[in-house]
Description:
This protein has two domains: 14-111 and 168-236, no CATH class; 125-148 and 245-355 and 377-404, no CATH class. The chain has helices at residues 14-24, 59-70, 80-88, 91-94, 125-128, 167-171, 173-190, 195-202, 212-223, 309-312, 399-404; strands at 46-47, 55-58, 150-151, 156-157, 233-236, 246-252, 255-262, 294-299, 302-307, 318-323, 340-342, 348-349. The chain has a seven-stranded antiparallel sheet. It has a three-stranded parallel sheet with strand order 1-5-2. Strands 3-4 form a two-stranded antiparallel ribbon. The radius of gyration is 23 Å and the shape is globular. Helix content is 22%, strand content 12%. By secondary structure, it is α+β, with helices and mostly antiparallel strands.
Amino acid sequence: MSDLVPTGVRRPRRRVLAAVFGAALAVTATNLLPGPFGHAADAQPVPAGFAGVTRYFGRGAYDGIRAAVAATPRSCALDDDTLAALVMAPIFKEVSDAMTPATAPSPMTLSRWDEWTGVLSGSNNMHANYGLYPFSNPATGYPRAYWTPGIGIFQYDSAGVGAPFTAAELMDVQYITGDVAGGMAGRYCASGGDDYARRAAAWQPWSGLGGIAKSEALFQEMLGLDAPAWSRIGLVDGIENGGGMAARTCVTSGQTLPCWYIDPSKAQGANWWALDDPSGGAPGSGEAPLPAPFYVIKRDGYEERHFMSIDTGYPQSLAGRRLLGLNARPRDGQPGSGIQWFDTSDVCDTARPEMGCAPAPPPVAPVEGETAAAPVAADSQAAPAPDTPQILRGTPLTVEEMLGSLRLSPEGGLGAVAVF
């Protein structure tokens, strides 16, 4: 991940965005321009207050994208400006149409429309969303300890391309753009046909929400229809590369590890997704709970998320972990998918005196004649350790106990689910 300076999802309303884009984009599928686009090598976006701006983007997030693009290898003639515009185009239809400074895309965006259907099944992602609630129980008394599966400015989801990454990595725009730009450059260069066909190939994973035509229109808006390249993009100060996520140091299980603190109330940029908490009443149609602030740790091949009682207000801290590379939802035919939940956590943030962190003990000196074991990197992707870390040695529930906590109707289907 790129360095993040500590600071003191639903998926967007896609039905609404689809309607907005239908009226807002001047370029349609019937008048797409094939390119190529000529532009000055030093063309740059302008400050948010300039006349002619049509879309807004966080300055820190933009800098992260440009840094990642510059470092991306490519096997064909594909300049940095073109690749940067390829990368940015889908963001405006995935996260925010960004037509005002206040709605510039937030790198912290959490998906909120990963609704559970009420059908307890691992046959598809929608049914399996029950596993995103603590202990796989949608009737939980701890709804804000919710494991959001779609994260960040690109809305990568653990069901697909987001599976290898932690929530913190997905919020780090520069870090995750490396993956996005690499994939787009590869598909673009491998595709035949004209420039439009190559761009369509680059955007194939984002072909939903109105198809390739919207990404093409946004691309052309950035690189010039009737205005200089990038002059339609206004950069907004105060939106960092991590969107308000804070890099911290945590003491846990006798270790001192890097951790990341994600507080939705600190989201920079478009934060409409963080303003509605349906767990306090009747949720919006299909709306998942807004998570309380949580910590992310990457350890032993797992992503861990820790919901501390000091943040949730719940009587106990909770934690879950997911094997990186697998779906957070418990899916049929996908061994190891889903989240393992625990009813405790000993994570302590050294930047928060109110948590009263005890210093980590010094490493044990080797006995004379023995060789000290090599340290293990905190972000190791090695095979999972056979023992559960002490931090998570609470009481994990069995599948039977999880399912037994759901109230079943007399017909055997799920009955009324309490909403907290």
